[in-house]
Amino acid sequence: MSKITTELLLERAVPRSTRLRKIETLNLSKLQLKTGDLDPRLFSRLRHLQKLDLSDNLLDKFPNSLTLPDLRVLNCNNNKLEDVTALKQFPLLEELTYENNVYLTLNDDYKVMFLLQNLRLLNGKDITKLANHVRRVNSRKLTSKVTAHWEKFFRDQLPEKYTAEQVKSIKKKFLKSVQTNVVYGPSSLSEFTRWRVKMIAEEFLAYSLGLELNTDPEPEEKMDENEEETTESPREAAADVGQVGDFSSYINNVAIMPSKRKRNNSKPGSGNKKSKTQAKTKEEAEDVSAEPLHFLQCHSKGNSREDFKTQLWSCVFEPLLDCGARKDPIVSSSRTVATCGGESVCLIDCETGTVLKKYKVATEEFFSVAWTTLTMVISDSRKKSHNILAAAGRRGIVKLIHVAADFCYGEIKAHKKPIATVCFSPTRETHLFTASYDKRIALWDIGIPDCDYNFKASQLLVLEAFSIPLRIALVPTCPDQYLLAGCEGGCFAWNIKLDKEQKSRPFEAIFQFPDEDGGITTSHRVDGLAFLNDDVVASKSSKPGCIYLWSWSRSFDTRGKGCQRTVSAVILAELEWSMTDLSYLTLSTCPAKDYVFCGDEMGSVWMYNLSNYTAAWSSAKGKRSDKKIPPTQILKWPELRANGEQLTEVLVNNVVSDPTFTYLVVLTSVNITAIWKKS
């Protein structure tokens, strides 16, 4: 039986009423209402209702036919809403609030701004200007792009006389293609853009080919041809709409321009893209395979523009979801990257340079970030995938952040000393490894938070390292059994299989490498470690000018018995690198493209394309390359000026590409995040 009755509605009216049709203000908050409790037949009698409060309930969506023709103000705070499109049934709505609905995102804000033509206030903020941009300028741009896509790729595919089957086929292809290829605005709004593109494409086909629409037609928008495009940027738009929890939209990031490059006069939020000519440095004038897109100063202490001392340490690209608001099913990899350094963690759209979110802890210095995707129960036992970001650093505490909800929902006091690096298991989404200055690597099960963000974390293993672990990597062919770590005192391997009773474990093997005197050694600092493919490991040690590539399977016999064995690394090749004696300039790999990346003490990025070598190395008889392999290219650091002075002594602490090597994110010692894009 429904919780809502005629008597309840009359009692909760403000003021109390004797007739449903006389009620203008109604308070139904804190009644534990679910979607099924909103009976359209009963609500249809509230013909003059203007203000409705449904806050602090359990609604996950709105029924499609509540029939409240005069509704002007709606409060849905603190529910479990997942979709807002049903709100279009309230066309006169002027004020809407739905804060603390953790599954709603910026994309939903844009949807309601488009659907509700009279909306003035959203979550307490005046959105008149932004909504006008969404309804007019955004729609005009997308309509133009959709039309152009049809003209270029599909118009000639239809014969003069076409059958219904041919129309059905081309419609399916066009809708898929147009959602794939029509892009506008930042990736944080990609779901909204695809939603509008599909809507516009269906309207276009209905008009051009006389097809029926799959959805109710939206009100036709009257465009003023002389209207000027608003200068409000996506970055400013995000700030206008507002965020929830511990995150805030960060709009004061400084884009620093190379001094030899013309100043970009494009409108804010346009992406600040440079032409190839502008992007070239003097040394690489004719050999540019990547061009710089953005130089961002978004980790400043206290948001100070004078901060060029904060060190940036770690970055990792956000994984794509199988479903959910942040899902981008069209593109092959994410362009959103999490970066950390100083007191903050930032989420950046690499294409536009927009800092989407910023999370700060005033007493922390973050050293490492890692992503995982958890399947969470949202309501009525239904499940949904969400990306969770783990961030850790000097305090030895792991922060767990539900990014879609803009909410840090918990922390794990993992170590009493700083955490150098963290990583999640690729096969067990709740398993997190933390490597600490206490000379231990711990494996945690972070659990899955319930709908109220209650979770239980437990420690599963402790690996004794005997020196500080700097980099860790799970062996791709057996990620549940072996872990490698580059440490201050060498390169080690542990058996991490959980079917063993021993919770605290010593290392199983330590690897020997050639030293600079021509001998071999186990005692050296390994500050770079990553797998190039299932077998080839790239590691960087204290031997100057050298990055080693070696075979895991040929170096380590998994059938060997006993702990603390010394084994020789089977070297496949050496990569030529800087002769600097500076440490902690780490390397990374892009396995899909056979690339190794490493920055140096001059701000440059050394890139190695090893696709011509990997086939030979995979052979059982593959021989070591006789000569050092030079870099395929070195990306030189541009001449940047801040406050009129040139930035010098730039160290590249880390450099990471997305899985398809479209973007390259460079983290420096001078609080600059540089984003390059492959040409």
Automatic annotation (TrEMBL):
Residues 215-239, 258-288 are annotated as: Disordered. The keyword Transmembrane does not apply. Its main location: nucleus. Residues 215-231 have a biased composition (Acidic residues). Residues 7-200 form the Leucine-rich repeat and WD repeat-containing protein 1 LRR domain. Gene3D superfamilies: Ribonuclease Inhibitor, YVTN repeat-like/Quinoprotein amine dehydrogenase. Belongs to the LRWD1 family. This is Leucine-rich repeat and WD repeat-containing protein 1. It comes from Pandion haliaetus. The lineage of its organism: Eukaryota, Metazoa, Chordata, Craniata, Vertebrata.
